[in-house]
Design goal:
Layout (H helix, E strand, L loop, with lengths): L19 E9 L2 E9 L3 E5 L7 H13 L3 E5 L5 H4 L2 H6 L3 E5 L10 H15 L7 H5 L10 E3 L4 E3 L4 E6 L8 E5 L4 E5 L17 H12 L5 E4 L3 E3 L1 H28 L7 H12 L5 H16 L2
Parallel strand pairs: 3-4, 4-5, 5-6, 10-11
Antiparallel strand pairs: 1-2, 2-3, 7-8, 8-9, 9-10, 11-12
Helix pairs in contact: 6-7, 7-8, 7-9, 8-9
The structure holds fe (ii) ion.
Length: 304
């Protein structure tokens, strides 16, 4: 049963008797990724592995459980670099890795190539200093294959805690959320977004799917949403969070439709449209905003 939430010195939180919940906020650039640890008598379920630079933090958090030879499960919410950085590191420590079947983990990835392409991506979204490729090397890790691939309705349990898998695409195709029904906790990664992470805009690759995913989450008696960068604990906070997320979704759609209608429509360059949408919602122009604008325009024009 649910206990009063309490925050410890190490930012640990305990809300359930069946498992102890800890959160690790791993900072990078101007934001952070949150990794969650659900520890039971016999195992630890880790939700996302975070960024490479969070290794010492994760190592310290897992050390007592590993000493007790507890089983380690890593459940990835999606395949973005800021959620998968320590996947190989965890695998080397015996973790069984799970991800949605839409997640991509190519074997034999060329690390240098990944860093180079990641660097270009980061340059578009963050104030990364020119020539500071090393700052990316400290964050990005090569992807690796999962041990098991999941889909809607898949179920993971160690006998103490059970997590069911919800397929919640929209942010990206591989977005999965993990729901622990006893506590009403939903570990959603980036599947539900309220404020946006890299400015005022949310990051969506499929606006139609995102709307469906929001409805799916809203239909469950969720009492806490533990996201990859944001958290809402308590039923009232969850309802407010979902409401604000739906508002943000409508706001983005409204901005895209109005900018499209008032612009030169078909002749308008997507970059110009995205920049105009950014002005309307107060988001900086970047690669993420460009992709999100395209996703909402697709939904408006084609319903998908
Ligand atoms: Fe993401």
């Amino acid at each position: 049963m649910a206990k009063e939430e309490r925050a410890g010195k190490d930012r640990a939180q305990t809300i359930m008797s069946a498992y102890e919940l800890k959160r690790l906020d791993m900072p990078f650039y101007s934001i952070h990724t949150t990794v969650y640890l659900l520890e039971t008598q016999r195992s630890v379920f880790v939700i996302d592995s975070g960024v490479l630079s969070g290794r010492a933090m994760l190592e310290a958090a897992l050390a007592p459980a590993l000493e007790k030879k507890k089983r380690l499960f890593l459940l990835l919410t999606h395949d973005h670099w800021d959620h998968t950085g320590l996947t190989q590191w965890m695998k080397a420590r015996g973790a069984a890795v799970f991800a949605h079947r839409a997640a991509a983990y190519p074997l034999g990835a060329d690390m240098e190539h990944l860093c180079q392409s990641g660097y270009e991506m980061f340059m578009a979204d963050f104030p990364v200093e020119e020539g500071k490729l090393d700052s990316v090397r400290k964050l990005a890790a090569p992807p690796c294959p999962a041990d098991g691939y999941l889909e809607e309705g898949s179920f993971l349990t160690d006998g103490d805690v059970s997590l069911s898998v919800l397929y919640t695409p929209g942010h990206c195709a591989s977005s999965a959320s993990y729901y622990e029904a006893e506590s009403g906790a939903l570990f959603s990664g980036d599947a539900v977004q309220c404020t946006g992470y890299f400015g005022a805009g949310i990051q969506i690759t499929d606006a139609a799917a995102y709307g469906t995913s929001l409805e799916k989450v809203g239909s469950l008696p969720v009492r806490a949403i533990y996201g990859g960068h944001e958290t809402a604990v308590g039923r009232a906070a969850v309802c407010a969070y979902l409401e604000r997320s739906a508002e943000m979704d409508s706001r983005m759609m409204r901005a895209v439709v109005e900018a499209y209608r008032e612009g030169d429509r078909g002749a308008m360059h997507m970059g110009d449209l995205a920049a105009e949408v950014g002005r309307r919602v107060g988001a900086p122009y970047n690669r993420q905003l460009f992709g999100t604008t395209a996703a909402y325009l697709r939904k408006y024009l084609f319903g998908a």
